[in-house]
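lol ok so funny story. i was supposed to be doing the assay writeup but got distracted and ended up predicting the structure for this chain instead. priorities right. anyway since i did it might as well share w the group, maybe its usefull for someone
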Amino acid sequence: MIRIFVLWLLLVPVWAVCQELPTTFILLRHAEKDMKQSTNDPDLSEAGKKRAERLASMLDKTNVTAVYSSDYKRTRQTVQPLAQRKGLVVQTYIPSKEDDIDRMLATNTGGTVVVAGHSNTIPQFVNYLLGEPKYHTFEDGEYGNLLIVSVIRKGEGVKVVWVTTD
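and the output, tada:
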């Protein structure tokens, strides 16, 4: 009887860990912005609008559970077509607030979360989840990068797949 109890004590934590579901983040920089607008918050250009529609089409068969964007027109407009197709509301986050990333991870456990940010904030987001500074700011003209990150716990066994859609 004691052996069974000891075995049970050893297996329950292993079973509990195996039951944890990874959260998948699909991270991307906003699509091309309209450089003709003299504002720090421009809309997407026509090319950017097309890229946003392609993103929505690409993820059509993906079970997206949440969509986040920084509080800029270009990031919201990049993920809005996807959110509309999925019947979701684009939620705002502050890229510099690690608490916002922690909250995303906690409230979307086991889900697939699409996050639109910027050339510097998306690599920082991935680095935060990894727990190490591995990724660097995207080049100015790079808009076709998708970083797919699978994570159960920040800094432990995080998997990153980098896909270029151009």
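Residues 5-10, 14-18 have pLDDT under 50 and may be disordered. The chain has one domain: 21-164.
back to the writeup now i swear
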